[in-house]
Amino acid sequence: MIFNKKQRLKATILQLRSNDSYEYNLERLIDFIRANQNSKVIVVPEVYLTKYDYDNINNMASFGKKALKALKKIIDNQILVITIILKDKKSNSFTNRAVVIHNHKIVHKQDKYKLFKLGKEHKYLKAGKKNKIIPFEVDGIRFGILICFELRFKELWKALEGVDIIVIPARWGIMRKEHLEILSKALAIINQCFVLVANSKDEDMASSSAIISPSGESIFDDNSEVIVGNIDFKEIKKMRRYIVMD
């Protein structure tokens, strides 16, 4: 069933701390999903289930595969966006993959293209392809995804022009907190769309998760684990008609 854009879409952003136990993190995530059944879209912070536990990279990838099976079972008409470390058997390499689950299926996937060298991601993970960062549609809603560090690259903003919602799963450090807030708000204003930021709440992370409108207005709460808001598609049409970006 195609979502009626005349209605408001309810979105839930999870701003969670990751435990050292992968299983515990998955159980918590499932609890949050069940508690937010009335939200159409749920976004999870980058690699929430495992963090970047490079010393146990094979375990991360094995658990990621297991977690996907569990999540596909419980996601019905909701749209879940999550990033997971997975292993490519053909290349024997690891990737940080954004996965969109809807109606018990993976309806979109893309591997992180811009790896964060300060975090040594390039030493452990294989970069995705730039041409995979494209708009995609779920239930008549046009989405785009940028994974954390990818938010800094303006050519990737352009690749997602025209979408309704850009989702940013992030594990963004507290030292660059202001950068995350400024860039995500600027992206919403320039692309005249809603931006959903789900960032980690770990002690060294920035939080700053938010639901940002095309006019730059934000719903955020650094103290909360759950941020809920409505996406009004009329705001997108209004802004694009008011300020024509030709």
The fraction of residues in strands falls at 25-35%
At the fold tier of CATH, the topology name is Nitrilase/N-carbamoyl-D-aminoacid amidohydrolase
CATH superfamily: Carbon-nitrogen hydrolase
**Unreliable spans:** none
Radius of gyration: 17 Å
The count of DSSP E runs of length 2 or more, i.e. the number of strands, is 12
Q: How would you explain this protein's 3D organization?
A:
This protein is α/β, with parallel strands linked by helices and 246 residues long. The chain has helices at 22-35, 57-74, 121-124, 154-159, 177-191, 233-242; strands spanning 9-14, 41-43, 79-88, 93-102, 105-111, 136-138, 141-145, 165-170, 194-199, 210-212, 218-220, 226-231. It has a six-stranded mixed β-sheet. Strand 2 (41-43), helix 2 (57-74) and strand 3 form a beta-alpha-beta unit. The model has no long low-confidence stretch (mean pLDDT 96).
